[in-house]
Amino acid sequence: MKASLFYGAGVTHGPVRMVVEEVPTPKPGVGEVLVKVAACGVCRRATDLPGVLRLVGKGLIDLNKVVSHRFKLDEINEAYLRLDMEEMLRGIVIP
To answer: CA geometry: angle at 84 spanning 46 and 44, to 5°?
Structure first.
């Protein structure tokens, strides 16, 4: 199967690079399933987020369709907790 692999992630020096490589198909264990992914997206905050914000500002992206939860800045701990507990997909913190 093909997989996207990140090299250098978590390393403080040097570039992070992503490559697609052929890897052995994993065998699910007890209580696990193997999921076939048809498509996946990767967001690079430094470059993608400013572009998305420009599109939102122009009215080309409706945040109501992509944001599942909204939090005030003083609720940021709750936002992280919900994300960690997998209770939301996409949240946004509004100052």
So the answer is: 15
Instruction: Domain ranges for the chain, please list them.
Output: 2-94
Q: Which of 27, 14, 19 is nearest to 2 (CA)?
A: 19
- Tokens 């994300």 belong to which residue? 83
pLDDT in tens, 48-75: 777 777 888 888 878 777 777 888 888 8
Beta bridge partners of residue 3, listed in sequence order: 21
Nearest of 68, 52, 50 to residue 60 by alpha carbon: 52
DSSP class per residue in 55-88: HHHTTSS-HHHH-SEEEEGGGHHHHHHHHHTT--
Q: What percent of the chain has pLDDT over 70?
A: 80
Q: What is the pTM of this model?
A: 0.36
E-strand spans in the chain? 2-7, 17-22, 69-72, 91-94
Report how far residue 64's alpha carbon sits from residue 59's, in angstroms, rounded to the nearest whole number: 12
